[in-house]
Design a protein that fits this description.
2 copies of one chain form a homodimer. Chain A is an all-alpha fold. The first copy, chain A, is built from 9 helices and no strands. In chain A, helix 1 packs across helix 4 and helix 7 crosses helix 8. At the A-B interface, helix 6, helix 7, helix 8 and helix 9 of A face helix 6, helix 7, helix 8 and helix 9 of B.
DNA sequence: TGACTTTAGGACCGTTCGGTCCTAAAGTCA
DNA sequence: TGACTTTAGGACCGAACGGTCCTAAAGTCA
């Protein structure tokens, strides 16, 4: 299809590797050197392919976010119930040790101050998409009578989203996993019994 | 008390102003220039007083954290109940518009990757201290029969802590305040009725 | 006055930043 | 072969980074 020498690397794989560094260190704290080392590319190739640091970051966000969304959808398909899926997500958040990283999308939401509006819009779009998966999970349980219907699935999904982000923060801050697990169980009681009246 | 020319600025006030910049932009993204501009000090004075950027940041954390803790304690004293206090805290989180900032301590927890262990310990200590105020609020309600005792106050406090951090993230990510308020109400139902059995 | 200290300001430091440009080699196609 | 494109590598850029040091003025005390 294309003439000339072909690419000697997989652009998406390089994006994955770079995303990993951004995820661990954030945008500002990640130097160009670190990006080159992580991607294995030369400066020429990286700029040719992705533009500049900012645009590279945006492409990372996009690729990473879609991967996460897909993983969530797959996880939901394989789960016995929406509640099981959500419990698994929260458990994963807690069990991932504190130091390295967290989720690139959530991290970026926290960083947003210094980044531009385009990035903010991207983050918001992914928040909505992640939440959509959670809503699907909840509505599925409602349809199966596992969850009382009067509770708005979207509001509940926001609680789960907040819990994911919040538990991650506490985990990063060095809170004990055992405690967080018990708190997690408390949160999940919201999925078991009517939340009002 | 001291000989020589006296300080021409209030060290704590300068710390407050500097904290504000760190809070909005984070450690890495905040330049020395920005710190000088915010504090109104000359480079000489700032280095003389606070050491270097990293140590300045740590002193900001300390001062900021203590201020927040005091504000929380005062808020609890004036509230009609522990639950009222917690509801007010969550409402404040949501109503503070997205763009500028959040809480320096929570932000730093998110940033922790690039910062050293001393900072991590400081963040954790404040998490514990903030949570202690929440625990006090919850135990107070339990003693007054407003909250069922079988629920461990500490676990519930972790849920609130996570909610604070998580709601802030969602808010930064541009989620609608009205929705977050409804989610907030859901979370608060955990304080109204027995969480298990 | 003299001892002391802080002040603002700027010179200066080496390093790193993100980013551009160029070159020569190498791979792929018609 | 010739056309085309990517490759790695390095030279180079101006700017900003955090940080140190020095000076001359100014304020406070005994």
């Amino acid at each position: 299809m294309s003439i000339g020498r072909p690419l000697s690397f997989d652009p998406e794989q390089a994006l994955d590797r770079v995303s990993e560094v951004f995820r661990q260190r954030g945008f500002e704290a990640t130097s160009l050197q670190a990006l080159l080392a992580a991607s294995g590319l030369s400066k020429s190739s990286l700029y040719q392919q992705y533009g500049n640091k900012q645009r590279l970051f945006e492409q990372c966000l996009e690729h990473y976010g879609e991967r996460i969304e897909n993983e969530m959808r797959r996880g939901l398909e394989q789960a016995a119930s929406g509640r099981d899926f959500i419990a698994a997500v929260l458990e994963q958040v807690i069990s991932e040790a504190a130091p390295p990283g967290g989720c690139l999308i959530f991290n970026t939401a926290s960083d947003l101050g210094q980044l531009d509006a385009r990035v903010a819009r991207r983050v918001n779009r992914f928040f909505v998409r992640f939440r959509a998966v959670l809503i699907t999970a909840l509505e599925q349980d409602q349809a199966n009578g596992l969850l009382p219907e009067p509770v708005a699935a979207r509001d509940l999904a926001n609680v789960i989203m907040a819990s994911i982000g919040g538990l991650r923060l506490l985990s990063k801050g060095g809170m004990q996993q055992a405690e967080l697990r018990r708190s997690c169980a408390l949160i999940l009681t919201l999925l078991e019994r009517p939340a009002h009246r």
